[in-house]
Amino acid sequence: MAGLAFGAATALSQPAQAATAGLIRVDQTGFAPGEVKQAYLMTGAAVSGATFTVLDSHGASVLTGKVGGTSLGKWNAAYPDVYPIAFSALKTPGTYRIKVSGSAAATSPSFKITSADALYGKLVADGVTFFQAQRDGSDVIAGSLKRQASHLHDSAASLYAWPEFAPDDSDIITTADLTRTGGPVDVSGGWFDAGDYLKFTNNEAFGAITLFAAQRALGSAAPASLAAEAHYGETWLDKAWDGKTKSLVLQVGIGSGNAAGTFFGDHDLWRLPQQDDGDTASTDRYAAAHRPAFLAAAPGGRISPNLAGRVAAAFALAAQVDATAKPARAAAEYQAAASVYALADTRTPPNPLTTALPNAYYPEPIWHDAMELGAAELALAAQQLGHSPTAYLAQAATYAKDYIASDTGDTFNLYDNSALAHADLLKALAAAGHPAGLAVTPAALTADLKRQVQAAATKAKADIFHAGGDSTNFDVNAHTFGFLTVQALYKQAGGDTSFDAFATEQRNWLMGANAWGVSFMVGEGSTFPHCMQHQVANLSGSLDGTGPIATGAVMNGPNNPSNFTGGLGDLQDGMKKCPPSGADPYAAFTGHTSRFADDVRSWQTDEPALDMTGSAVLGAALQEAIAG
């Protein structure tokens, strides 16, 4: 007995195994009560028997459970194991955090359980705030970044011939000077495209499309700021399109200057936009005070169909939302849409398609989707305004058939508008009583919507963090928000609820349930980018997220490390160093050939843009709409 007692005492006195330190990744914006809820525990070694406790804002335990016993896979050498934490039983509204104990130790950022309206409504409103921060011209909104009027000389811009660029997709202009062809034209106002100050009609149109479609989806629940901002963008498109001469401005400004260094472009300078109006340096003339404008085609000439379809769709969507309250304005918008659409060069489209100068800024491979969208929106607008939609229905159906036959492979984003086109063509067909004899059937349109969401859901099922996007390539954030759009449109079209959990997982990934633990929309959650490649945010905002920020901005997101060959380079003259320490806070989380760098020099991952944020606004609005 004595020996047994001694042995037992010895065993009890042995030190307990130290808990493995871990990290919890969770959607920092929160969850709706009825959603599937999952977080992820990242650890430096395999663990077993770990438990979790959900704590409320007072620190009281409201739910306990076991951390998933099987690792979802290896992320990188530092984090070889990722375990699921399932807590769908948590449904009571409030603010919470998750604490893991036992063989692992970690505490999550806080998150909320709240209504879908509140959850998605904030994303919509904040996305609009970023569009407001991107305003150019005299009608700016100061906001927290204290924006001021800028580029007032755009009201009398000169037109120039398209520049010649160096080979290999360079944006360096090879000629000694630009060749003036006409003007002046009023292209003041509009939105800056990204972290720079260029204005691209293609992207402005896509931004307006997403805002108008979001306004239409939310109806009376749409914030007033959304309607105002959508019309702000449309007002600029109305300047870019001259219905009398049948000419469309393609772009305002140039990215880089020429090889000889006799003039600069926008990207050669780092400054606040209001400084441009007083810039007298001769080499800065095309970058600052006297920016050039370029036409998409000669007046009355055929326009690249991707551009014509997209601009027509923006005008037609404006006509739809204005049809009841502002019929005269809606009639003018409808006429503009029809006029631009009629000039689309669908017989001999340019190769490459016209998007920007140079095309390498936004290389677009397809156009049937944009023409389908333009025709579908014109059909819907025609029905509301008392015109016949027949011709537009037939044309939209033909473009849809062509898209399904040859252009599939993407989902909703700047480069592929087919999901919205399919959904709105379905609405227009239903309103017309489903006319027979068209090139595509409602069943085929619905099936293609399902294909788009199914492809992403299949990828997500095999991914450690259930990501449906490709974080080894550009625009993963825009694509992932696009999945919210496609899933909602498909659900509206056929009532299929089987992808609801997939949509939740995609929002989770975007808002912090990813390897980096970062929310990719500025101002959402507790951890978001502080050092975007955005001149106004860098020069007028905070560098640590605690002061003025570019609320609602969505940046490119994680990217392949091969795109960082040679590092991030030097700071541009005028840039504020960010992060101030120079250290990459996310370096330890590079894995699966995917890197995210929050650094003002990192255009590969950290530059926000209209199309990315527009994708967020529309995706969130549609999710809010189907939840209601």
Q: Could you give a quick summary of the protein structure above?
A:
By secondary structure, the protein is an alpha+beta fold.
What can you see in these coordinates?
The chain is 36% helix and 11% strand. It has helices spanning 2-12, 116-133, 201-218, 224-240, 305-322, 327-342, 368-385, 390-406, 418-431, 442-462, 476-494, 500-510, 535-540, 603-606, 610-627, and strands at 20-25, 38-43, 51-56, 61-66, 81-86, 94-101, 104-107, 111-113, 157-160, 180-185, 199-200, 241-242, 247-252, 293-295. Helix 11 (476-494) runs antiparallel to helix 12. The longest helix has 21 residues, at 442-462.
Helix content: 25-40%
Radius of gyration: 26 Å
Any idea what the shape is?
A: globular
Structural class: alpha+beta
| Uncertain ranges | 1-15
Number of H/I helices:
15
Q: What fraction of the residues are assigned to beta strands by DSSP?
A: 5-15%
Alpha-carbon distance between the two ends: 70 Å
Mean of residue pLDDT?
96
Please provide the count of β strands: 14
Compressed to H and E, one letter per element, the order equals: HEEEEEEEEHEEEHHEEEHHHHHHHHHHH
Mind describing the biggest β-sheet?
8 strands, mixed
